[in-house]
Amino acid sequence: MYENNYPNNTYHYDTGNMGGMQTPKGAEPKKGMGIGKKIAVAVCSGLCFGIFAGMGFLAVNTAGNLLGERLGGNGGAGKAEVIEQQEDHVEKIEDTADVQEIAEVKNDAPVSSDATVMDVTGVVKAVMPAVVSINNRYVEKMSFFGQVYSSEAQSAGSGFIVGQNDSELLLVSNQHVVASAEELTVQFVDGSQAQAQIKGVDIDKDLAVIAVQLSDISSETMDVIAIAKLGDSDSLTVGEPAIAIGNALGYGQSVTTGVVSALNRAIPVSGGQGLTDMETSDMEINTFIQTDAAINPGNSGGALLNVKGEVIGINSNKIGSSVVEGMGYAIPISDVKPIIENLMSKQTRLKVAEEDRGYLGITGVDVRSDSSELYDVPQGVYVSSVIEGGAAERAGISRGYIITALNGEEIDSMAELKEELSYFAKGDTIELTVMKMMYEGYEQDVVSVTLGAQSVTQ
C-alpha cells in the first residue's frame, strides 16, 4: 500500500479497489458528489436562471413602457391601448370576413327586375337615336292701343320618332312646341336637319304629330336613327326610376334621371298651355305623371322613359309652376296612344303664308265639357259675334251658333279652330258643322263657308 502523509491528514488508497477512495481520517466518507452538493448546484443554477430571466423581463418591460409612453402617455395605458387596438383589428378582420361571406350569399340570390338601376347609359344609348330637337320659327303678334304688331320669334322643343310610312318619318311632340309655326326644323341624333310639317294636333291633350319627308333625310341619317318603343304607363308604380331625354334650353339633347313621384295628378289645363287660372270656369282637367327628373324649357315634347327604354310619358315644361323644384310632369303615354295613332293617319298639310290665309270673321268663346253639362249646350266654339261682311255672315252664321267641326274634324276650342284655319287660303271653301238653337233645342247643320281676307278677328 502506498502511503502519503500530509499534515494532520492521511489518505489511504486500496490498490485492490481502484475506484474506491478513502476519506481522510476523522472525516465522513464521500459518495460521488453527494445529495447536498447536488441540491446546492441546483439552487445555484436556479438563481442564475432567475437573475437572467429577471433581466430579460426588465428589458421587455422597459421597452413596453417606452412604447406605451409614446402611444398612450404612460406605460400601463399605452400597453392596454396597444392590446385593445390589436384586438379591435382582429375583430375587424373577422367582421370583414363575415361581410364578404354575406355578400357572396347575396350575390348568389336572384336580383329583382324591379330594382332601381342608377347607371342608365345603356338605356340612353338605345333611345337617344329616336329623340329629336325641334326648332319653331313663328310670328308673334302683339296689340297696342288697337294696333297689331308682328315680329318673328323662335322657340325650341323636343320630340321622338314613333313611326314611318311610305313617304314620311312621323314624330310626336307637344302642340305648344309647334304652335303657330311658320317653319319647323328637326335635328336628328347625328346633327343633320330637315324641314317638318304638322300632320295633326290635339290641343286639349297638348299633342302634335309632325312629319319629315323621307326624301329630305340622307341614307346615313336613316342608318343611325331609331323608332321609339311605347310602353305602358298604366303599369307604373310610384318610386320606380324615370329618365327624361330632351333638348333642354335648346342646347341639344341631354339626360336627367329621377323617379316617378306620383301618378294621375289632376291639373287644370287650357289649350295645351299648362296651368290656368284656377278661377277660370272653362278649364279642362287632365291627369299627368309627376316626376322629379328635371324637365326644363326645351324638354317639352321629349320622352320620359322607364328602365327598359320604353316611352311612358311625353314631357311638358308648360305644366307646373316655376316656384317649386323637383316637380315635372308628363302626359301618360297609355292615355294618348289612340290619339297619336289617329293623328298619324291624317294627311300632311302645309300651312299657308299669313298674308294669304283665309279668315272666318267671328269672335268665339270655348264651350268646355263642364259648361256643356252645366248649361246643357253642345261642346265646341260659341259664336259671340259675327263681323259684318265677313265670310261667316255671308254663309248665314249668326251669333249663338256653336261650331263643333271643320271638314268633319271635331273642334273643341277657339285655339283649335284657328289652328285648323291656318291651312286654308282666302277663297278656299270649308264645311263647318254647327249647332243652332231652335225652340225644341239645338239642331245640327252643315254650312259651306268661302273664307275671306284677313281682318282683325277670325
Query: How far apart, in Å, are the first and last alpha carbons?
Result: 165 Å
The total count of helices amounts to: 9
Low-confidence parts: 1-31, 71-83, 89-113, 272-282
Beta-strand proportion: 25-35%
**What integer is the average pLDDT?**
78
Order of adjacent strands in the largest pleated sheet: 3-4-5-8-7-6
Instruction: Profile the largest sheet.
Output: 6 strands, antiparallel, barrel
Q: Summarize the helix and strand pattern as letters.
A: EEHHHEEEHEEEHEEEEEEHEHEHEEHEE
CA-based shape: elongated
The total beta strand count reads 20
Rounded to an integer, what's the Rg over CA atoms?
48 Å
Computed structural class: alpha+beta
Features:
alpha+beta, 20 strands, 9 helices
Description of the structure:
Helix content is 26%, strand content 34%. It has nine helices and 20 strands. It has a six-stranded antiparallel β-barrel. A hairpin with a 5-residue loop joins strand 12 (303-305) and strand 13. The chain is elongated, with a radius of gyration of 48 Å. The termini are far apart. The model is unreliable at 1-31, 71-83, 89-113 and 272-282 (pLDDT under 50).
Concise account of the structure shown:
This protein is an alpha+beta fold. 26% of the residues lie in helices and 34% in strands.
What is this structure's SSE topology?
Elements lengths: L2 E4 L2 E4 L22 H38 L2 H34 L12 H7 L3 E14 L2 E18 L3 E6 L1 H4 L2 E7 L5 E10 L4 E7 L5 H6 L16 E6 L7 E16 L14 E8 L11 E3 L5 E6 L11 E5 H12 L17 E6 L1 H7 L4 E7 L4 H4 L7 E5 L2 E2 L3 H8 L7 E10 L2 E10 L8
Antiparallel strand pairs: 1-2, 3-4, 3-6, 4-5, 5-8, 6-7, 7-8, 9-10, 9-12, 10-11, 11-14, 12-13, 13-14, 15-16, 16-17, 17-18, 17-19, 19-20
Helix pairs in contact: 1-2
